[in-house]
Specification:
The chain is an all-alpha fold. The chain contains seven helices and no strands. α2 packs antiparallel against α3 (36-48), α3 (36-48) packs antiparallel against α4 (52-65) and α6 (88-99) runs antiparallel to α7. The longest helix is centred in the first third of the chain and has 18 residues, at 14-31. The chain starts with a helix and ends with a helix. InterPro entries: TPR-like_helical_dom_sf.
Length: 116
């Protein structure tokens, strides 16, 4: 919650806080290059900071490690969704892929895409 508040002050404190945290998460990622958790955390913070492109890149890194990782699939869809309506089809594609893995969360998100 404190990070979210700090990120609101982009240009004042938010950017240095984000960069510092991103550097720390990058170091955590390097400790075990096959651990999805630090990559997903890094992606989530990038997305929270409004860095959708970085978040997408990180979620794709996670999917290179485990192409069936439902959390990364759903989150990648949400990152594309957050980029705007012009990325709707990409968002839908990733959510539907997660839904095909048998995820209830993905199924719930998939309903959103169908009714749009």
């Amino acid at each position: 919650m404190q990070l979210r508040e700090a990120l609101k002050f982009e240009g004042q404190t938010g950017t240095p806080v984000y960069r510092g945290l991103d550097n720390a998460l990058n170091s955590w990622c390097k400790l075990d290059s096959h651990d999805l958790k630090p990559i997903r955390v890094r992606a989530a913070f990038a997305l929270e900071a409004g860095n959708e492109d970085s978040a997408i890149e990180y979620y794709k890194q996670a999917l290179k490690i485990n192409a069936d990782d439902i959390l990364s699939l759903i989150s990648l869809g949400k990152a594309y969704w957050k980029k705007g309506n012009e990325h709707f089809e990409e968002a839908k594609e990733w959510i539907e892929k997660a839904s095909g893995q048998g995820s209830d969360d993905a199924d719930d998100n998939s309903l959103t895409w169908r009714w749009r």
